[in-house]
Amino acid sequence: MTARFQTSAPGRTVPRSRRRAGVALAALALACGLAAPVAHAQDGMSLIRDTEIEEILSKDAAPLMKAAGFDPQNVRVMLIGSKDLNAFAAPGQVGVFTGLILESKTPNELKGVLAHEVGHLAGGHSFRSGDMQRAGLVPMILTMGLGALAAMAGSTDGAAVLLGNAGFFGTLGALGYSREQESRADQAGATLLEATGQSGKGLADFFDNFRYQEVFDQSRRFSYFRSHPLSSDRIDRLRSRVEALPHYSAVDTPDELAEHAIMKAKLDGFINPGQSLIKYKETDTSFPARYARAIAYYQTKEPDRAIKLTDALIADQPNNPYLYELKGQILFEFNRAKEAEPAQRRSVELKPDAPLLRVNLGQTLINQGDKAKTLEGIDILKQAVVKDTDNVDGWRLLAQAYDSLGMDGDARLATAEQYFALGAKREARTFAMRAREMLAKDSPGWRRATDIVLVSQPTDQDLRDMARRGVTGD
Q1: What is the share, in percent, of the chain residues with pLDDT greater than 90?
Q2: Could you give the CA distance from residue 329 to residue 319 in angstroms, rounded to a whole number?
Q3: 146 and 81 assigned to the same domain
Q4: What is the tens place of the pLDDT at every residue in 148-183?
């Protein structure tokens, strides 16, 4: 398991700093105006951060991106928490819905859909769509990575994240491609799969599985097939094409099959915990089944059973960072931060390049009420946000930690960074202006606060205030 993946936990109390909460609470109050916890989202959609699943999806997508002429580092693969069977492509982004992953039967099917979406991206279909232009979504998509807000119940790196615009993904799902665009994306997807030595069979199989959707009216179709019009002729053309390609008989590797099973088990455990305990029976001793049960017990508030199962998994895979992450997450969520710390430290040791794991550890350290640990937590959180500057939760926790130590200027600057990452320019500007008043002039923090103000559409009064107090030009 990778980052902390969770749905919100209504009613759960997360430890907070006991010394000072002014800045953190101010940030929280503003944040609550932008989004609500997952359980209360009207459309049930959320952007989910989870390192393990993100890495699997990115690894699947990277060869396809490269074959299409994109730098994989510049195209973000996002995981959307929704039961909808859907996916979308936008400039710099490909979104995959959890419902689609859970519905996919094989890794090749899922990669086929990814190839189809990359085909849309390569064809510029999303960007040129008149529907998107009329809906005013192009600017929103281009800044979408800045539009996420961590669900507030103390969640960190794998936590569910909501967008400030709750209807964003639903709107994307409603925007339709033309049949010509769909056909071109099919052919492009088949070409990309072939170019990367993979079969196009999964792509054809996926569409074939839902051929019956063609006869449904729009209101009864899965959202994916409302935005991606399906036809038997199109499926038959695609099938004929992929069957003629040299790599049609290529099969998924054992590692790919294992990762796909783990990804589905993890999603099942978090999203459908009750059903998972039925689906993944106690007699099933496979890794994915035990993983799903451990997560499901955690989600159904049986932490002791969850930890016992997780410990058994760790005994089998002692170098798996995501198992230590899960154990630490369970302990922290049930107010056992000191016990969580060793597991979270081990997860970071095993995967030092994962910012989300560092956010987990940082949160645990700053919530123990110990000054030395809070200072260490600040250092770890700073390392995380340097690598992942859009990590809203990392900035929020930094603000909380600084506030607990009475470092008001730093706390306000971290809150400004939080809102800057959200794309909330007015709030970012407000907190940055406050930070400038408290931080030493020309210090790195003061300069950063000045930068945030200058790029966040300052008012004439803001500029006059800055000029009066002095602003360097470099």
Answers
A1: 55
A2: 17
A3: yes
A4: 222 322 333 333 333 433 345 544 544 556 667 777
Does residue 144 lie within any of the structural domains? Answer: yes
Give the angle subtended at the CA of 382 by the CAs of 380 and 388, to the nearest 5°.
105
Phi-psi region of 369 (alpha: psi -120 to 50; beta: other; left: phi over 0): left
Q: Which residue has the higher pLDDT, 287 or 18?
A: 287
pLDDT in tens, 299-320: 999 999 999 999 999 999 999 9
Helix 179-195 with 51-67: angle, nearest 10 deg:
90
Q: Are residues 165 and 281 both part of a single domain?
A: no
What's the pLDDT at 459?
A: 72
Domain co-membership, 277 together with 239: no
pLDDT attached to residue 46: 76
| Coil vs helix vs strand at 160 | strand
**Structural domain harbouring 437:** 426-474
Taking the C-alpha atoms of residue 360 and residue 381, their distance in angstroms, rounded to an integer, is 9
Which secondary structure element, helix H or strand E, spans residue 274, and what is its range? helix 273-279
Can you tell me which residue has the tokens 């730093």?
A: 410
Q: Alpha-carbon distance 20 to 407, whole Å?
A: 10
Report the C-alpha gap between 399 and 427 in whole angstroms: 14
CA 123-126-127 angle, 5° bins:
90
Q: For residue 346, is it within any domain?
A: no
Residues 202 and 295 reside in one and the same domain: no
Residues 236 and 277 in one domain: no
Domain presence at residue 344: no
66 plus 149 within the same structural domain: yes
Q: Which amino acid is at 421?
A: A
Predicted confidence (pLDDT) at residue 124 exceeds the cutoff of 90 = no
